[in-house]
Amino acid sequence: MISYKHATVDGNKIFYREAGPETAPTILLLHGFPTSSHMFRDLIPALADRYHVVAPDLLGFGFSDAPDRKQFRYTFENLAKAIDSFTQSIGLERFAIYVFDYGAPVGFRLALAHPERITAVISQNGNAYVEGLSQGWNPIQRYWKEPTPENRAALRDFLKPEATKWQYVHGVQDESKVAPESYALDSALLARPGNDEIQLDLFLDYASNVALYPKFQEYFRAKQPPLLAVWGKNDPFFLPPGAEAFKRDNANAEVHFYDTGHFALETHHAEIAGAIRDFLGRKLTLKASAA
Which CATH code is given to the segment(s) 3-135+206-290? Predict the structure, then answer.
């Protein structure tokens, strides 16, 4: 059974889904743009018999609060700090991170700040290498270089319902396997008053994540966390070379590709859950034995 809860962090409510025994090893699931913890609705039950699974919505996303931009500056550093405070507020001491899309720079920032708390890294289309960025980033990169009102306005197309649906179905072999409520919910939440400006702020700040890629890579090299990449190989934003690159800094990284798109869980949650169970079953047991 999944529980649906809220935790208050610095005056803001963070919504989260939780399942599994609290005494079991914890997995923190971090979603991306433009979605929420709803993307983990099928994965959580597939892991919760063996693991304590926690999936929060980032501030400005899903059912978490979206504080006014005058009170809260929407940067990835601030999103990561809020999730850091969230984990501490609900008593998570050590956990594996499952990072997807925006969840990757949030999760990797947590790992930089508290490497001793991270038991493993599972990256599902969560990028940390320049070679993983596709040409789909070109309009956003243009905005980084020239943050003009015109370049900001040009990115509004990414916030339209048809763009959200496209992210879900592009690269999928059978679109009938993608539940329409997934992209419909995301579109409805993106359409809330003021949320467009929040998302545009984060598009601009994504440049800070690319600037941190060398530090993320140094973490993989220095700390050698157990690392699994499970990648939709037809992702239009994060390319397969970004998954393969983990092996450059962590020779023991394991990489699996699936014939699907960006939102790989929509079509391959069972296969990905199986890979996670196998991986963590081996790696966490080994770490516990070594300790």
Answer: 3.40.50.1820
